[in-house]
Write a structure and sequence with these properties.
Strand content of chain A: 25-35%
CATH superfamily of the largest domain in chain A: Dihydrodipicolinate Reductase, domain 2
CATH topology of the largest domain in chain A: Dihydrodipicolinate Reductase, domain 2
CATH architecture of the largest domain in chain A: 2-Layer Sandwich
Helix content of chain A: 25-40%
Oligomer: homodimer
Number of domains of chain A: 3
Largest sheet of chain A: 11 strands, mixed
Number of helices of chain A: 14
CATH class of the largest domain in chain A: Alpha Beta
Chain lengths: ~425, ~425
């Protein structure tokens, strides 16, 4: 590898868990990074909220509370954005790209909302915009989908892409504890943020689903295109019941091509679902992430690893940074945004799904027949039924075969109106099966 | 993505399983590939042994039995080499690179033996040499290691990278049948070649280990640097005994950094090993492949999928082809060979390993004490002992803790000389444990 003498200046915006690790690795591994890139990476500055507070391992002279001036500096060639959120991250990244600086970001919310605008700025200015760290932390997902599968046709991407919710569901499954108790515990252990809404309501996973769907299907998909349900209504009873069907419950991000009456569409959705215990995603526990990909020729692939945390996420950021830096040294460019297919987005109603419905029913003859009638009336065929308890505790659990989500949800709405159904206590979808 | 009008000419050398699928996908997915690349890919010719034999879906005019003339054609911009073996593949690839044509190959034996020479030709002529398909078929491994982990430090790569041997070992484990019977069955099913030597003796896995080690550790490692043992001596008794230790037997390719008295070295080795059932690699069965990577910051990653077969391997070839074609359209370049670290190769003697030793012993008091004495004399500490049978069928099974492979193998040699040890019937290493 030939060596270019000119150093490459890097600005890091944000110094939370990930930023701290990025700065540490940039410093500690400088010699390796230089050898791999063909030029030294030099940290020009770190933008933080409070520049007066000292940070271990960082020259105080590098700290600034003015990210805009840092990005604008002539000796900054590449910007690492780790502030998160939409503004000022969007404006800073756009300014960087428009002044010919490559950008590496871990900001899923921003990429899921504004990828088109930012990708265009990168393309117009012939620089790179990389965001491997935005989905599934250290696990290479973006690059395999964009590059390794560039000659294949992806049919489905299904993943566990949020560590907080996976930790909560795994703990509920293992200990039998309720959602509230496990969430509190997750907060104490640092697995859940003070305001866990983005995680537990599925917004974080929905952003990642949008990014995955965009890349997998060469179409622009934004977070608002993703159907989303969180895990806040999951009870320990649901996990118990799942076990009786040899399943566990996982918050899944699913992106797939579906065939509709109007032609091929993209479904992107996030919800807690029953997953059979023998499915590879069922064994992904705790804060780990995994993404399963089904492609026309490659078949089924699976990627597994740490989906969050400072060092793992920093590893993904550094990988992008080295590639962007090499492109600068060798006048190359990474892949551009590819949206040529422009497939339309399917509504959740159109998506073929399977349902698991648990309801409290009147303990009298004929109830099962009436319930089965509601499913049959909408052409939803029943795969399994379980009757439990008796008297005031009589319950009926129904698992359906595949049918349109509209037919399934309309059936549930009808069940809720039935006299003999006291309460529909739980409705979950079932994923990872072939029938 | 802007569109370049000039088509990109592709020559395919070899039309076996993979070549046939590459030609099919190039033809069937032409519109998608064109949109992703920004220029059409045009198949200029396919080199085969017998050009007079018709091939379904291929214009007979494209067939030629002269690969050298095909590679030399002015309208060929990129070459896909799927002939396999060293010559004429090496000469053809070198000619292509030296005439400014990018090359995609699935040829592990060639890359593992001649990567330096070929990488230099690619670099000198500013073209790409891609070989994702050479390791683990459809599973993206080369690209994640080269690019996604470009800013991290890989400590270990351990994988099941040969489908034939994994099929044989899985079948032996499941059915209890012997090696010979299962090998014959594998041949009938198309999982083993007529001459299975390259697979069952570990040569194929050793080539892949060399490629993985080169990339992971930024050093040049060739197949001859890889310590290698095949699976031909594995018996159904070994698999039975493995179960008693909650293990199974897998042919592993292991690449790791080890610390020796002379400093950091690379160990690259292939052998059948006991793997604990709870280890993720233990559950990879049949013709599937999986590669586990441990990196300083990313932690443990795992990649899983189909490691062989026409369509999966073609998917990897096409991914490389699209990236190389895009580089041609956008005047970019893929990553170059990176060997700056130039770490020395450790001999197997230096590598810390764990041993499983099964021996037939005399059924008399004091034997265990004598056997234990031989281990202790070489500072090899014993983790578990099992005594089985009695009389002429008395057996002793010892599992050791980690010690240098030299100490372990010297202990085994000493045991073989002992009067009270009738026969050392099986010696396997144990991998995938922390102690």
């Amino acid at each position: 590898m030939s060596e270019s003498s000119r150093p490459i200046g890097v600005a890091v915006l944000g110094m939370g868990n990930v930023g701290t690790e990025v700065v540490r690795i940039l410093t500690q591994n400088a010699a390796d990074l230089r050898a791999r890139i063909g030029a030294p990476l030099v940290l020009r500055g770190v933008a933080v909220r409070d520049a007066s507070r000292a940070r271990e391992g960082v020259d105080p002279a590098l700290l600034t509370d003015d990210p805009h001036s840092l990005v604008a500096r002539d000796d900054v060639d590449m910007v690492v954005e780790l502030i998160g959120g939409i503004e000022p991250a969007r404006a800073l990244i756009k300014t960087a790209l428009e002044s010919g600086k490559s950008v590496v970001t871990a900001n899923k919310a921003l990429i899921a909302a504004h990828s088109g605008e930012l990708a265009k700025a990168a393309e117009d200015n012939r620089v790179d915009l990389y965001f491997e760290a935005a989905v599934a932390g250290a696990i290479p997902v973006i690059r395999p989908l964009t590059q390794s599968l560039a000659g294949d046709s992806v049919n489905r991407v299904a993943g566990i892409v949020n560590g907080t919710t996976n930790y909560i569901l795994s703990e509920m499954d293992e200990t039998g504890a309720g959602y509230g108790k496990v969430l509190a515990e997750a907060g104490r252990l640092g697995y859940a943020e003070a305001d866990p809404t983005a995680d537990v309501e599925g917004y974080d996973a929905a952003s990642k689903a949008a990014i995955l769907a965009s890349i997998a299907f060469h179409s622009r998909v934004t977070a608002s295109d993703v159907y989303r349900e969180g895990i806040t209504k999951i009870t320990s009873k649901d996990l118990e019941a799942a076990k009786k069907f040899d399943c566990t419950v996982k918050l899944l991000a699913i992106c797939e091509r579906i065939q509709t009456a109007d032609g091929e569409k993209i479904s992107a959705r996030v919800y807690p679902a029953l997953v059979p215990l023998e499915h590879p995603l069922a064994t992904v526990n705790g804060a780990f992430n995994a993404v399963a990909v089904e492609a026309e020729n490659a078949g089924r692939l699976m990627f597994y690893g740490q989906g969050a945390g400072g060092a793992p996420t920093a590893s993904a950021v550094l990988g992008d940074l080295v590639m962007a830096a090499r492109n600068r040294v060798y006048h190359g460019r990474g892949p551009l945004e590819s949206t040529y297919a422009s497939l339309p987005i399917a509504s959740i109603d159109e998506v073929p799904t399977r349902y698991y419905v648990s309801m409290k029913v009147a303990d009298k003859p004929g109830v099962l027949q009436q319930v089965a009638g509601e499913f049959a009336a909408r052409d939803v065929s029943i795969a399994a039924v379980r009757q439990e308890g008796a008297g005031t505790d009589a319950r009926l659990i129904v698992v359906t075969h595949r049918a349109s989500d509209r037919a399934q949800s309309e059936t549930v709405a009808a069940l809720e109106q039935m006299d003999s159904v006291i309460k529909v206590s739980s409705v979950l979808r079932l994923e990872g099966t072939n029938d």
